[in-house]
Automatic annotation (TrEMBL), chain A:
GO terms for biological process: peptide transport. This is ABC transporter substrate-binding protein. Keywords: Signal. SUPFAM superfamilies: Periplasmic binding protein-like II. It is a lipid-anchor. Pfam families: SBP_bac_5 (PF00496). Belongs to the bacterial solute-binding protein 5 family. One of its GO terms (molecular function) is peptide transmembrane transporter activity. It comes from the Bacteria. It comes from Streptomyces antnestii.
TrEMBL record, chain B:
Residues 99-315 form the ABC transmembrane type-1 domain. The keyword Phosphoprotein does not apply. This is ABC transporter permease. InterPro entries: MetI-like, MetI-like_sf. The chain crosses the membrane at residues 7-25, 99-126, 138-168, 188-209, 254-275, 295-316.
Length: 559, 325
């Protein structure tokens, strides 16, 4: 009895000692921050964090919406690469393309000598197969009638109507190898663990839930551009931990938002640490529900717009990284489309901050002020809600600035920020008052104007809408939008886009606020050749179609 | 034995109830997975992709009761479906790849905190008014009342960034291949240390106070005085007479904590970029990923019930009074 008791007692003591010892021992074995820092052996891996993926799952199926990083950037390639930074189209798997005169078809000529990473050649049949699979799994491409391959190097896409924006949609689509995918029973649920692609880095190695490597495609079609030995992807469960790795110099290239980047990152190594935030994002709008009075009146929408201080919004809420909008509603990407005659005309004043003019316009529209508060026509106080998802702290600041601005003209605004799910439901069903909302961001202004002004995308209240939540449509806009889509030459397209800008300036379907920036920062201690404001061949995005341009341009620093 | 069987019946009932809640609650949340994904993409997805994704996911449009029957059936066949936010990875794969790290971190931190806290509590109550008793409780409560996020960030910056003693992230170094060798294991331990330490720091106070209080109550019992009168050694009285009886609430707490631990330590995972269930659950809730949410909730429910069941059994062993009733 005695022995067992003392045994237990000493066991308790032993556990305590062991726990303490374990704590001490592990303290000694911590080996600090080992990483890629300073590696200039020429075999260094380009290290890229994903701040939005806490862990990786081995899924390289490009049809999956949450596919493994770099699948559509480094493993599979499109026919053509459109860079939003300089607006240039770079021929990629296709060397040229030609639109039929009637706009009802487009023909691509494939590049010679392109091989899949397993050594088999890329053929027109692969392209035909890819689009067949796309339509079967995901649908979309409603205008696409038939895809045919007259010979092994030519693919023709026939449409059921003239539709010029198709170039970017078709040419920007990834191409899959038929000889692999045709054998898969259910391609929608295929995780594609060992992808075969035409891209520069296709070989998945050392796959772990927190990191993996992509190594060179041995049969890449431009081997002279595979300067870097490979990519290393790291998983992070949020901006904070990803930014810590970045400011510590352990990753090369980030796309997550770094607060006060000048101080927290650039100042650490002025020579090597850089960022570039070109305004190539979508136009961010303050949308007013046009099914509700008084927002159905364009004069009111314009007056409210004049009350908004866009300079303050871009400087304070967006840290100075965004560009204020003008009355065409066009984002920074579309500068070449912008019509100076619209921007410079007096009808464009409604996007300029002018409290007095705003008050006057509201008076004229019949919303009188009494004791600093404005009333609606039915005598009730003029109040409105601004709904923003709670996760978007920057947009909540935007909404709060608008709230202050509106107070200056006697309107009471309430900023409501529940979870995005709740906000999104009110957008979808058209029951909201107003909100801060993104907009379509295609290669041409077509997507944007169709999304904010076409009657074809307007849904009645309480019927689910997927765009045009503000529910505004203009028949005149429909004509211009259709004519734009049918036009096959740039001149006609520009003429129609000018018309749309004029109409936007008249209707004020939404209140444009600013062009969102494309975040991006890098350190050139290990790799050089990054896109910059002086050499804007791509944005600093590591998850968009122009990313492959960066991957094939960067060169390792030799120590 | 009858007691155990009766308990088992109760646990089955509780399991069914939580299974049903598990199914219903996510469906009361506003929105649907595809519009959530669309809202999160904020303009980088085209509207026609919504219809495309709905087609791809094959979202369930059957009536609720049919979905429920299918769900119950799939739970018992072990098929948890395919995650939407990580389409097309099966839910069981998503959970399976994370739960090991969650358990490692959780169990390490829980056992360390419970053992340390209980020992401190026992000794503090035994030597009432002594140094341990007067200095530790306020200190630990003070540390424990820091916001966890702040404490973890502070520890990470101090020990990870400034001093460089510990790695800053992940469960092991990038490029290391998992295996049962000394290099990998010591690497895992060094990565585990800081996250576990912060959890221990904030939780050890609770264990200590709980143990100390129940120990003080026990110390006033007659049988302690009796034991002292018999001339037993103080340490024997402390551990075998007082602590064993004072331990019961702690055992219950330990069981509860063991069950909830499976839910993961979200903040720890975020700060230290440590893999685990917590972040998956957050993602699933934000993305309205019903299958993943259900899978994780189910795992948590099962773990909590199982842990409670085990605690019940342990109680039967530790406390003879339970057996009589």
């Amino acid at each position: 009895m005695t022995s067992s008791r003392s045994a237990r007692r000493s066991l308790t003591a032993a556990v305590a000692v062991a726990a303490a010892a374990a704590l001490l021992l592990t303290g000694c074995s911590g080996n600090g921050a080992a990483g890629a820092a300073g590696d200039t052996s020429r075999d260094q891996l380009l290290t890229v964090p994903r701040e939005d993926m806490g862990t990786f799952t081995r899924n390289f199926n490009p049809f999956s919406p949450k596919v493994g990083p770099m699948t559509k950037e480094a493993i599979y390639e499109p026919l053509m690469v459109h860079s939003p930074a300089d607006g240039k189209d770079t021929p990629w798997l296709a060397t040229k393309w030609e639109q039929a005169k009637d706009g009802r078809s487009i023909t691509f000529t494939l590049r010679d000598g392109v091989k899949w990473s397993d050594g088999k050649p890329l053929t027109a049949a692969d392209v035909v197969y890819t689009f067949g699979l796309q339509k079967k799994l995901l649908g979309g491409f409603d205008y696409l009638d038939k895809v045919t391959a007259p010979d092994a190097h030519t693919v023709t896409f026939a449409f059921n109507k003239p539709f010029s924006p198709s170039v970017y949609e078709i040419a920007g689509h990834f191409i899959l190898p038929e000889h692999i995918w045709a054998k898969i029973k259910d391609p929608a649920k295929f995780t594609n663990p060992d992808p075969v692609g035409t891209g520069p880095y296709t070989k998945v190695e050392k796959f772990e839930s927190q990191s993996f490597e992509l190594r060179k495609n041995p049969s890449y079609w431009q081997p002279e551009k595979q300067h870097i030995a490979g990519l290393r992807l790291l998983a992070f469960s949020g901006n904070d931990s990803a930014n810590l790795a970045f400011t510590n110099g352990e990753v090369d290239w980030t796309q997550s938002f770094v607060p006060d980047i000048e101080k927290s990152f650039v100042a650490k190594d002025k020579k090597h640490n850089h960022y570039w935030f070109p305004a190539t994002g979508a136009m961010i709008n303050w949308q007013l529900n046009t099914t509700k009075a008084p927002f159905d009146d364009p004069a009111v929408r314009k007056a409210l717009s004049m009350a908004v201080d866009r300079d303050k919004i871009t400087k304070v809420a967006m840290n100075g990284y965004a560009n204020p909008a003008d009355c065409t509603g066009l984002a920074g990407t579309y500068d070449s489309w912008r019509d100076a005659s619209v921007v410079n005309s007096p009808s464009c004043d409604w996007t300029k901050h002018d409290v007095k003019a705003a008050a006057k316009a509201l008076d004229a529209a019949g919303y009188k002020e009494k004791g600093g508060k404005r009333t609606l026509k039915n005598g009730k106080p003029f109040t409105l809600d601004i709904s923003v998802g709670s996760a978007s702290s920057d947009w909540i600041s935007v909404a709060n600035i608008i709230k202050q601005n509106l107070a200056e003209v006697g309107i009471t605004a309430n900023v409501k920020s529940p979870d995005w799910a709740a906000v999104q439901t009110t957008y979808d069903m058209g029951t909201f008052d107003s909100g801060i909302v993104w907009s379509g961001n295609g290669a041409t202004p077509y997507e944007f104007y169709r999304g904010v002004m076409s009657t074809k995308v307007v849904q009645p209240v309480n019927k689910k809408a997927t765009e045009n939540y503000h529910r505004f449509g203009d028949k005149k806009a429909d004509q211009l939008i259709d004519a734009f889509a049918a036009a096959t030459d740039e001149k006609t397209q520009h003429a129609k886009a000018d018309g749309l800008q004029k109409l936007f300036a008249e209707d004020a379907p939404v209140v444009p606020l600013f062009t969102g920036p494309e975040w991006g920062a890098y350190t050139d201690t290990r790799f050089t050749g990054w896109p910059t404001a002086q050499n804007p061949y791509a944005t600093l995005s590591n998850r968009s179609v122009s990313t492959v341009l960066i991957l094939t341009t960067l060169k390792p620093v030799r120590g | 034995m009858r007691l155990v069987l009766r308990n088992l019946g109760f646990y089955l009932l509780a399991f069914w109830a939580s299974l049903t809640l598990n199914f219903l609650l996510p469906r009361f949340m506003p929105g649907d997975p595809v519009s959530r994904m669309f809202a999160q993409a904020q303009g980088s997805m085209r509207p026609d992709q919504i219809a495309q994704l709905q087609k791809l996911f094959g979202l369930d449009h059957r009536p609720l009761w049919e979905q429920y029957l299918g769900y119950v059936k799939s739970v018992f066949t072990g098929d948890l479906g395919i995650s939407i936010s990580r389409f097309p990875t099966p839910v069981s794969d998503v959970i399976g790849s994370q739960i090991g790290w969650t358990l490692l971190l959780g169990i390490t931190a829980l056992i360390t905190a419970a053992v340390l806290g209980n020992l401190l509590g026992i000794v503090a109550a035994w030597r009432r008014g002594g140094f341990l008793d007067s200095a530790f409780p306020p200190l630990l409560v003070f540390v424990g009342s820091f916001p966890y996020f702040w404490l973890a960030m502070g520890a990470l910056y101090l020990f990870g960034v400034t001093l460089g003693w510990f790695p800053l992230r992940h469960a092991y170094d990038v490029g290391l291949t998992p295996g049962l060798n000394g290099e990998f294991l010591s690497n895992v331990v060094s990565h585990l240390f800081l996250p576990a330490l912060t959890i221990v720091l904030v939780s050890v106070g609770g264990w200590m106070l709980g143990m100390r209080n129940s120990m003080i109550a026990t110390n006033a019992e007659d049988y302690i005085t009796m034991a002292e009168a018999k001339g037993l050694s103080p340490s024997r009285i402390m551990f075998r007479y007082a602590a064993r009886n004072a331990m019961l609430p702690s055992v219950t707490n330990f069981g509860m904590a063991l069950g909830f631990m499976v839910g993961g330590a979200l903040l720890t995972e975020v700060v230290f970029a440590y893999p685990g269930i917590g972040y998956q659950l957050l993602n699933a809730v934000q993305g309205l990923d019903y299958p993943l949410m259900q899978g994780i909730f189910l795992t948590i429910t099962a773990a909590v019930l199982l842990a409670n069941f085990i605690v019940d059994l342990v109680h039967v062993r530790l406390d003879p009074r339970v057996r009589v009733r």
